[in-house]
Write a structure and sequence with these properties.
Blueprint lengths: L4 E9 L2 H9 L7 E5 L14 H9 L7 E4 L10 E3 L11 H4 L5 E5 L4 E4 L3 H10 L10 H9 L24
Parallel strand pairs: 1-2, 2-3, 3-4
Antiparallel strand pairs: 1-5, 5-6
């Protein structure tokens, strides 16, 4: 990356498919920060990789001109100004769920910060209005997974106590 700070306006999508369609049809502009939410451990479910959208952005020559933030995941193939594994994820009402198109976001990779230019009062009002999305699956293995999985920053543990996990085994 040539620059490690980025400021732009949010362009929000509630799935990778919707974001990819917009990118493919070039329905975004330089300076946008593409938000892909509801793709975290619970919301995806399973933290699908966002490579399709990031590859399309980079393939269009926009890797340095837009940024992308998601509660989904990336692999080592991702290019451009991309931030993944954001938590708490949208499906449990994390801040990424509260963003709206046009919100101004500042990203500073040197400091390791993401800031939306909204007051605490505005965020609180949005949180009160937020409603949990209905899952597009109601039973079976994906339902069980979503009920037990813990947060991404702890490794998305999938045992019944995953919600209370306090140790990441990668830290051992």
């Amino acid at each position: 990356m040539k620059k490690l700070q980025f400021t732009g306006r949010a362009r929000c999508f509630d799935s990778e498919e919707k974001a990819y369609k917009a990118v493919k049809e070039r329905k975004y502009k330089d300076g946008d920060i593409i938000i892909i939410r509801y793709e975290g451990p619970k919301g995806g479910p399973g933290m699908r990789e966002m490579l399709q959208t990031t590859a399309a952005i980079y393939g269009q020559g926009k890797g340095e001109k837009v940024a992308l933030i998601t509660d989904g995941r990336f692999s080592g193939a991702t290019r451009g100004f991309c931030i993944g594994h954001v938590g708490p994820e949208a499906s449990i009402g994390g801040p990424i769920a509260l963003l709206k198109n046009g919100d101004i976001i500042d990203i500073d990779a040197k400091k390791g910060t993401i800031n939306v230019r909204l007051s605490k009062k505005e965020l609180s009002l949005r949180k009160k209005k937020w409603k949990q999305r209905k899952m597009n699956f109601g039973n079976g293995t994906l339902w069980k997974y979503a009920q037990t999985v813990g947060p991404a920053y702890l490794g998305a543990p999938t045992h019944p106590g995953g919600k209370n996990e306090v140790k990441t085994y990668a830290d051992i």
